[in-house]
Amino acid sequence: MSITKDTILKIANLAKISITSDETEKLESEISSIISWVETLNEVDTDNIEPMINSLKSSLRMRDDEVNDGNKIKDILLNSPTEDDNFFVVPKVIE
Question: How many CA atoms lie within 13 A of 23 on its CB side?
């Protein structure tokens, strides 16, 4: 499969990007080489290979779904120049 300038321009239009004629030529050659590289995967023999859903055979460790503050209040407030009763103090925005 080869990519033409018209195809590149159509893709650019669909993506809502503007490209120059130099970029069109460069993209044409780059995308054509990528597609030809991907087409080489058709040569791989996958007849007796079972499809793989997940590469991991083990299941993930589950934990209780509990809402908490993480006990990190003091660590978080270290990022604030000033704090008052475990809250950030920020300048007044509305007068």
Answer: 8
The rounded distance, in Å, linking the Cα atoms of 14 and 47 is: 37
The DSSP call for residue 89 is -
Q: Check whether 23 has a pLDDT greater than 90.
A: yes
Band of residue 24 on the pLDDT scale cut at 50, 70, 90 = very high
Q: What is the DSSP string of 33-83?
A: HHHHHHHGGGGS--TTPPP-S-S--SPPPP-------TT-HHHHHTTSS-E
What is the tens place of the pLDDT at every residue in 58-67? 777 888 888 8
H-helix or E-strand spanning residue 88: strand 87-88
Domains in the chain (CATH in brackets) are: 5-43 (1.10.20)
In the chain, the amino acid numbered 67 is: V
